[in-house]
Amino acid sequence: MTLQPLNEQLPAIEVSEIRQFDESVSKIPGILKLTLGEPDFNTPEHVKQAGIAAIQENYSHYTGMVGDPELRAAAQHFFKTKYGTDYDAADEILVTVGATEALATAITTISDPGDAILVPSPIYPGYIPLLTLNHVTPIYIDTSKTDFVLTPELIEATIAANPDAKIKGIILNYPSNPTGVTYHAAEVKAIASIAEAHDLYIICDEIYSELTYDATHISMGRYAYDRTFVVNGLSKSHAMTGWRIGFLMGPRHLIAEAKKVHQYLVTAATTIAQRAGIEALTKGADDAQVMKAAYIKRRDFVYAALIQMGFEVARPDGAFYLFAKIPERLHMHSREFTQALANEQKLALISGTAFGPGGEGYIRISYAASMDDLKEAVKRLRAFIASRTD
Q: Does the reported pTM lie above 0.90?
């Protein structure tokens, strides 16, 4: 039996290097994994109880496709209070199935086949397959020489170097996965200004906004409102990865088009999870503070240990990752390093190559793990470095 070809874009994408490596090393007995970007905390108890109550109260039917009105009102208040944005709950906030669906919806909304999108690198790899499936070309901008911060100069140089590209927009993610670096007000304003000058849309993934450590998160929605989709959600702020509640926010003229895409992708987010989300954003508006305090202690511990071992590390201002440059004296590529570390010391970290150009020579460590696990991880990493140095 012969079958017609599948989507011609599928051969160009694969399961992410992060997931592939995580699955492969999971077979190693005694492996300690600092691989995935998932809080090690449980969903707050009062949020869980709200979910249970929603089941008992028969919230088992569709909400409207844009989401529960009460949740959208809670989101409007939460993001306005926290970050100074002012998206109208009625027609500027869309409840999505996690941040991933929000990203897929935003990319599909702004993109035509043959377009290009600017992507600062290293960056979370999940964006690229979404671009590929939409027949959009990612144009990488290597930020490894600017402390992993996208600058107007880098944007201008990249646009000038690609005169024939139909550049439609920019994807940003801050605080960043994998570096933990974030953007301050002057940097956000500068990117907003250059996006306006070149008539570029901005898709800004702000999922780690509640895990900004040394300053208040600055949302792109404050400075480039007319051309920006802001993506956020409850996965990181409230340890609700499995509940799959995200938000896509933007001006009404963009959200009006995005909701068409959203409807035919998923219809609507899960009603029970949306009811729990109301509890999270109202009575649990500051739930992230307990997690954030723990993450700061973990960051400081692992950061100091890495520096002592000879790594160069971008000091993270948010999220829960450290992006460390492998000491040159080891003469090891990123994938070689992470595979040998897993085999020899049963410690799994992610190769910097998973995050695009600019990632070679680096490793990513997730410190969303207990302090006991982090202490053991440092011990194993130190043993590995010592064995290779000798």
A: yes
